[in-house]
Structure formats: C-alpha cells, structure tokens
C-alpha cells in the first residue's frame, strides 16, 4: 500500500472511530470497539472500501499507534469526541509531562489551564520531542511542561493509553510551566 493510501485510510479511521461513527452507520461499544467486519462493510457501502491487510498495515505502521486491533475488533486508542470509556486504570505519572500547542493558544491556557475541549481528556506527552511534533501540526510549536507529580499528589487522576499518551480531565494553570 502506498503512503498516500495509508494516510487516507488512517484519517478515515480517526474520523469514524473517534468522532463520527454514525456517519457511516457503525456503532461503537461502550469501550469504543467495533467489529472489523462491520467497519469494512460500512466503509464499502460509503465508497471507501479497504482490505483487512490494508487495515492491519495501517494499525501496525502507525508511528503514533493510534489504533488497537484485538482479534476481530478495532478501536482508536484515545482522542474520542464521542462517549466511550476506554477502561484505562488510574496510573502514577512521571514527575513531568508535556503538552504541545501553538502561540495563539498560550494566553487562554495561562488563564484557564488545559481543558479537553471537544475530547474526553487532555492529552499529554511523555517527552518534549513528542509534544513538539503534536504542537507542530497547527503551526510553530510551543511546548508546555506539566508538573504531573504535583498534580497527582493533589488528587488529579491520570491514565495512560495503549500508545503511551497520558490522559487527565484537565490541567489547572498553576501546574503549567511556560517557555521563556
């Protein structure tokens, strides 16, 4: 499968496994899973057929490990805007986590902290490099440092997704360090 096809399929999966399953007539279970057969049939009905081999290649080849295949079912690992419970247990975070954003968002974040916006949780990266890549998707990246250890001691709950993204309900501004 060529790179363009792979990217297109990955974006298609993100749209329908994270945000708009109803658009192609699939139903995610409470934990976000759907059968591969149901997904493939729905995609074919809506003009985007793909093979099980293409699907497996996109799941295995994703550098961010966005999706999980478990037998005959698939789900997105995080980033949902539709109601799902990924059934991730609470986890003790490292002392610091990172969040990539862009300069135009910094003023609001200084005032309000990090909020999940349309997603279920705030996404945090385990290292500065990953946060830089995340922030760069929308422009010149700004990387914020999150005092995750202090947040955890203050009672904030963290979870870690299958692909290493740390999730929490919000990050209050006092737990953030801004560059410069």
Automatic annotation (TrEMBL):
Q: Entry's SUPFAM superfamilies?
A: ADP-ribosylation (SSF56399)
Q: What is its EC number?
A: 2.7.1.-
Q: Name one GO biological process term.
A: tRNA splicing, via endonucleolytic cleavage and ligation
Q: Name one GO molecular function term.
A: tRNA 2'-phosphotransferase activity
Which keywords appear in this protein's UniProt record, sorted alphabetically?
Answer: NAD, Transferase
Q: Which Gene3D superfamilies match?
A: 3.20.170.30, RNA 2'-phosphotransferase, Tpt1/KptA family, N-terminal domain
Domain of life of the source: Bacteria
> What is the main EC category here?
transferase
Q: Name one Pfam family in it.
A: PTS_2-RNA
Q: Which residues form the signal peptide?
A: none
NCBIfam families to which the protein is assigned, alphabetical? PRK00819.1-4
> So what family is this one in?
Belongs to the KptA/TPT1 family.
| Task performed by this protein | Removes the 2'-phosphate from RNA via an intermediate in which the phosphate is ADP-ribosylated by NAD followed by a presumed transesterification to release the RNA and generate ADP-ribose 1''-2''-cyclic phosphate (APPR>P). May function as an ADP-ribosylase.
Q: What is this protein called?
A: Probable RNA 2'-phosphotransferase
Instruction: Record the organism.
Output: Streptomyces platensis
């Amino acid at each position: 499968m060529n790179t363009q096809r792979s990217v297109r399929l990955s974006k298609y999966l993100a749209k329908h496994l994270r945000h708009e399953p109803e658009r192609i007539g699939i139903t995610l279970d409470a934990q976000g899973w759907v059968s591969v057969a149901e997904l493939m049939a729905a995609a074919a009905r809506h003009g985007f057929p793909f093979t099980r081999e293409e699907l497996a290649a996109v799941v295995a080849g994703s550098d961010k490990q966005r999706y999980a295949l478990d037998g005959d079912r698939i789900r997105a690992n995080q980033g949902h805007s539709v109601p799902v419970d990924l059934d991730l247990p609470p986890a003790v975070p490292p002392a610091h986590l990172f969040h990539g954003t862009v300069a135009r968002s910094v003023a609001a974040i200084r005032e309000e902290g990090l909020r999940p916006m349309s997603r279920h949780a705030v996404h945090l990266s385990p290292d500065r490099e990953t946060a830089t890549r995340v922030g760069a998707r929308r422009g010149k990246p700004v990387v914020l440092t999150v005092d995750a250890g202090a947040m955890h001691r203050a009672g904030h709950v963290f979870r870690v997704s299958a692909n290493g993204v740390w999730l929490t309900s919000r990050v209050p501004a006092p737990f953030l360090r801004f560059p410069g």
